[in-house]
Amino acid sequence: MNANEMSTAVRRRLDFAISIGRDAGQHTLKYFQQADLAVERKSDNSPVTVADREAELLMRRRITMAFPDDAVLGEEFGETPGSTGFRWILDPIDGTKSFIGGVPLYSTLIGVEFEGSSVLGLIGVPALDEMVFASLGHGAYYCRGDATPRPTRVSSRDRLAEGIFVTSQVDSFDARGACEAFLRLQRAAYITRTWGDAYGYLLVATGRAEVMVDPIMNLWDAAAILPILVEAGGTFTDWQGRATTAGGEGVATNGRVLEEVLQITRDFPKPC
User: Fold this and answer.
1) CATH number belonging to domain 3-151
2) CB atoms within 10 A of CB 2
3) How confident is the model over 246-263, as pLDDT tens digits?
4) Are strands 164-167 and 191-193 parallel, antiparallel or unpaired?
5) CA-CA to 168 of 20 to 30 Å: which in 23, 204, 218, 224?
6) Is the pTM of this model over 0.70?
7) What is the structure's pLDDT at 6?
8) What does the alpha-carbon distance between residue 224 and residue 113 come to, in Å, rounded to a whole number?
9) Where are the domains of the chain?
10) What is the 3-state secondary structure (H, E, C) of 191-247?
């Protein structure tokens, strides 16, 4: 596949991701804030609902129709192999606990890899009607509602003392033996909030926060994030500063505060 063919193939998939991401997000709203929503527990004790499963199935069916030879990996239904080199990575509801609690800061995530490298990502926040998406080399874009997507950039603040640090859940730092990392980041930042899960990464990509840190991540949590942050002018790395979606952890920054953040997170290597 030459460069022009690759660009066309990625663009087709990005346009399609925007369509199915919006539709899957809208589907979750049918169950959002329902008092009688049933919650089940998966084998790892994390919660799941009918909304998670139906939204992923919706995306899988559409992908199979449009790109039948692409691989698909989803949080709820595992992996379907493919032969094109492209792999879709789906998280139908990132922030299921928020969703269950009626909090609108949950997201639908879509990432696409080509031969193991991230090439595009999308974060949709259906309850707020916000979306950010990107493909490598073609910029990151933000839209709300039916507005025309506009280019988005990270903030220009160059000190964490002037910036916002966000994370998903404070006790996740304890789960990897890194409570001190959270305390040091909190002390260094101007303000700390737990506007977490993928919404925190959207905040960094749109210049509303300077750093988002997750001590524990799955691939479907991270796959969409790297291309969005890179194309918005920021960074997405593991705690040691490696640009990867497979590190099992995440640090997103506006780039300007990256080294300041890594001076903290590097002191807490991932437990073996």
Assistant:
1) 3.30.540.10
2) 7
3) 999 999 999 999 999 999
4) parallel
5) 23
6) yes
7) 87
8) 9
9) 3-151, 160-265
10) EEECCCHHHHHHHHHCCCCCEEEECCCCHHHHCCHHHHHHHCCCEEECCCCCCCCCC
Taking 70 as the threshold, does the pLDDT of residue 3 lie above it? yes
Here the tokens at position 107 are: 């997201």
At 34-65, the pLDDT tens digits run 978 888 888 777 888 999 999 999 999 999 99
Are 162 and 211 a contacting pair, CB within 8 Å? no
Mean pLDDT of the chain: 95
Exposed e or buried b for every residue in 28-51, given b needs 16+ CB within 10 A?
Answer: beebbeeeeeeeeeeeeeeebbeb
DSSP H or E segment with residue 120: strand 117-125
How far apart (Å, rounded) are the C-alpha atoms in residues 31 and 119?
Answer: 31
| Phi and psi torsions of 60, nearest 5° | -60, -45
Quick one: tokens of 166? 């966000």
What CATH code is assigned to 160-265? 3.40.190.80
The pair of structure tokens assigned to 69 is 């030879």
Mean pLDDT to the nearest integer, 144-153: 96
